[in-house]
Amino acid sequence: MIRVREVRVIDDEGQQLGVMPTAEALALAQERGLDLVEVAPTAVPPVCRFLDYGQYKYEIQKREREAKKRQKSQTFKEIRFRVKIDRHDLETKTRRASQFLDDGDRVKVAVQFRGRELNHPQLGRALLDRAAEMIGDHGVMERSPLMEGRSLFIVMAPPGSKVERRDDQPGQTDGAAASEAPGETIGEALAAKGQVPDVAPEVAPEVPAEVVAQEVEGDEPQPAPPAA
Length: 228
What we know:
four-stranded mixed sheet, Translation Initiation Factor IF3, 7 helices, Ubiquitin-like (UB roll), alpha/beta, rod-shaped
């Protein structure tokens, strides 16, 4: 209930009708089959609008639900398999994982090994590949198969999530590749890339012929006569 004497009125089409007594504004709203709703109570004078109050309240609740949905924290679910799971159980659990992904949750899909099953990890990897294919329409693989204790697992994320790339063998940098290449030294690697400056080779000083002859004969070298 509006208790002030005067209000600023905006009609249902967004046109301002100016400041008028509250009773007059209420009568105009009833003539149009609408309610007089106070939308800015702190203004001076308060601002009221001709609205369908039921529809107005519904729109407010809808916006609140959408805002709460955007702020929903993402939870982490887990689905577990056995290596010898049958087809019906696999379909049931992958269907459950698809529901989790549709709700916006991440899903950890794990295969548990028993006894000698650990000697055949390829069976678990094949089962995970099959499960990822079955729920591929509902999510993307965020983490490739990883062994953890007696379990092999993958992580599936909802579509549109930021997928963290995890490569088992990350690429080497140019420097690491150059230093680890077989039979190649650092200098050769730099020379191959053109990073070694060209340096003129040192030239040995020319020795006079007289000194060379004396060294061959076994005599002590004599100083060369001064030039005339």
